[in-house]
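S.,

Sequence below, as promised.
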Amino acid sequence: MGSDRMKSIENMYFRCRKEASLYNDKLNSRESAADMLGVSPSSLADYELGNTKVVPVDKVVLMADLYNAPDLLNMYCASECPIGCRKEIATEIRTLERTTVALIDLLSGGKLDDYMAELAHIASDGRVDEDQKDKMSEIIGYLSRLKLLVEELMLYDEKRRGAENVKR
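The prediction came back faster than expected:
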């Protein structure tokens, strides 16, 4: 039993259900949550204990909606989807303050303008020359960090809107 408990605590499906149970008492019980998801309690237990190799995507979507956990979709894509796991995807919802400060830091000092000017120069002849490869990689790295922060902000806002809908 002890190792099952540790497995479930680390599991994204379990964590999202438990977080949602703070706002919806029915989600405290695996049996009640399973009923709301249209799966058996043993299936939900298998998802939460990692005993199911791949959780059906339609059930992940239901869980994300029921638990108001948009990050669950991204976690699924990043860890279980054979296409999504090849991409860098935001998988956590950080505080609004933390994401905003990180965005401000990344966008401060004209960094974006500088990189866009460099990218325009690189792209002017329609190819990346040998001496431009390092700069191109640097620009892509910067834009990737920016993309992740924007995705985190979008996840935060999606969760906020979901929470507002629950309160109504």
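The mean pLDDT is 91.

Coffee later?
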